[in-house]
Amino acid sequence: MSNAKPVTTTKKKYGKIETVCEIYDLNKNTWRKKAAKGDFPGIVRRRGERRLYVNLEVFDRWFRGSEGSIEEVSE
Looking at residue 29, what is its pLDDT? Predict the structure, then answer.
């Protein structure tokens, strides 16, 4: 008998532009420019940082045809 807890998987909620490009097989340079301009939803800008992250769930819905929104997160 084992007392091991069941393994649970967690889904990543945010990713870098590079991660999104790898998942969807997109051109990194083009999508970095689009992200900087705010041309697609799911972009997360953290205060005090230049890096952009993407809410993967929002981006996926938009990429597949639904709309999302751009959000700003302060942490």
Answer: 93
